[in-house]
UniProtKB/TrEMBL annotation:
Monomer and homodimer. Interacts with small ribosomal subunit protein uS11. Not a structural component of 43S pre-ribosomes, but transiently interacts with them by binding to uS11. Its EC number is 2.7.4.3. This is Adenylate kinase isoenzyme 6 homolog. It comes from Exocentrus adspersus. InterPro entries: Adenyl_kinase_AK6, P-loop_NTPase. It catalyses: ATP + H2O = ADP + phosphate + H(+); AMP + ATP = 2 ADP.
Amino acid sequence: MQNVPQTKREAPNILVTGTPGVGKSTLCQRLSELTGLQWLEISKIAKENDCLEEYDQVYQCPVLDEDKLMDGLEETMCRGGNIVDYHSCEFFPERWFDVVFVLRADNTTLYDRLVSRGYAGKKLEDNVDCEIFQTILEEAVASYKEDIIHQLYSRTPEELQDNVNRICLWLQQWFQDNQT
Ligand SMILES: Nc1ncnc2c1ncn2[C@@H]1O[C@H](COP(=O)(O)OP(=O)(O)O)[C@@H](O)[C@H]1O
Ligand SMILES: [Mg+2]
């Protein structure tokens, strides 16, 4: 990364990542309502801003125009106060995030959630494998400093509430540490 001095953010940027179906959007929506931080659901933003390229027939999902998306988000991310929600994390600039939460679920829970979402065949299998092989956790570890990465299980409503509480505490601490 270039050694440019960064202007200080007024509020932190949080990344919430994990396999599709682990509960990212559910958590981010709750957090956004509670904290007033802006929830950026990347799949939706990409669609709305024409950042999707051709459809990948094998993986049955659209291919993201990452550069266009990153350019469009740069200013918002520099201001801070965002919760970024996406099922991949390696292409975001490392400097964007103050903390990274990788959500996890067990295989059967995830399988059931994806089936209710209408996933089947290879797409279902690939996503469950992605969780079994901890692909997104490894991606996070390869992309961000290990001490800002936290793994959180989100299998039950109780765990969801615990995660919300934990992230709110983290946020309070950030504001304490970054008082001007
Ligand atoms: N902690 C949880 N306990 C029980 N159900 C959950 C939990 N988190 C999410 N869900 C449910 O799992 C499904 C997938 O959640 P969602 O937030 O859409 O996942 P993602 O955004 O990661 O794809 C939804 O039906 C949601 O209600
Ligand atoms: Mg989602």
